[in-house]
Structures are given as structure tokens and as C-alpha cells.
Amino acid sequence: MLRAAGAFGRGPGVIGRLINGCGTFPGKNALNSALLSFRGRLWSLNVPTRNSSGGGGTLRIKQTAFHNEKLYDEMHFFVMLAIVPLGLLSFFTNIFIGQAELVETPEDYEPRYWEYYKHPITRFIARNLMFSPQQVYENYLAIRKRHMDARKLVIEDRWFQESELAKQDYRGWQFIPVNPAGVLRAHKDELLHEEMGHWFPR
Fold it and tell me: Any idea where this protein resides (predicted)?
């Protein structure tokens, strides 16, 4: 066992020399120096490492580029989908068609509302994608009419409330509002029954 310990010491180590020489335990200073020497041997061991095909390269942790790449892809998609075709359309329209010019019109001719615009693209948008001025004006009048009717109902309801408070007369338990449709239908059936009698099927 002492020979195995001496072989483990390997050469000039303090523990190996002491054990091989006399087989006795050394002092405190000798043990400390032996431990330091053994620790140095452990730290100097060559550990096998695996390098990939790069030959010693390390894997660096960096921020992901997924969002940036996604943004670039979407920008490229929308540019190629909308900006480029619309730019080509505007370019060829200005080159081959051009803007409208003022000419003399006959007396019995009434221009349409989209003919007041100068550019052909603006004319197309006003004719097919927007409401006519007459329709816009009529929609505005309809909205104003609904607001006026609502205001009139509010004024009438306020007048009824003020009248009830002033005259101390209001609907109470003795007045029950009902739907007269059933009563009128029954009265009409009764009159028809009296005129036609019991012998005629209805």
C-alpha cells in the first residue's frame, strides 16, 4: 500500500518522497506543501474537448433576429404588393393619358360631378369609390331630420311632464293603456257575423 501511495506521488512530490523514504507521516508544513503540489497537478490536467468543424470556435449568445427579419419580409411584401404597382399605374397614366383640359361644352350638356376633377385617377376614384355630392347632401339632410324629430319628442315629453306637475293630473291606477287591436278585430268579426248570418261559411 505504501508503494502504491509512493507511485501515486510520482517523482519529486513531498508525499511520494516521504512515504517511499521512511514510511512515516510528515509534519503540518510538509502536508500543506504536498496538498498545494497535488492541487497544481489537478489544475494542470489536460481535459479532452470537442471542437466542431470550425476548429476551436465558440458558440456566442446574441439577440435573436427573428423580429427584424419578419419586419423586413413584411415591408418587402407590402412594397412589392402595393407601392410598386400603384407607382407604375400612376406613371403610365400620367405619360399616356395625362390631365384633362378645359374645352368648350355645348349649351345643352350638363357635366357629371366627376368631370370637375382634373386628374384621371381622381376622376376614377370620385366616380366608382366615393358618393356623389347629391347623395352626401341627402344623407346629411336625413341625419338632420332624425335629430329634429328626436328633439321634438324631447320637447313634447318635457311639456307633458310640466303640464302634469302644473295641473296635478297624471295617469294613475284608474287608466290602464291597452292594445286596441284585439278589440277592434273582435268588433269587426261581430259586425261581419251580423251581416252574413250563421249559414255562410267564412
Answer: Mitochondrion inner membrane
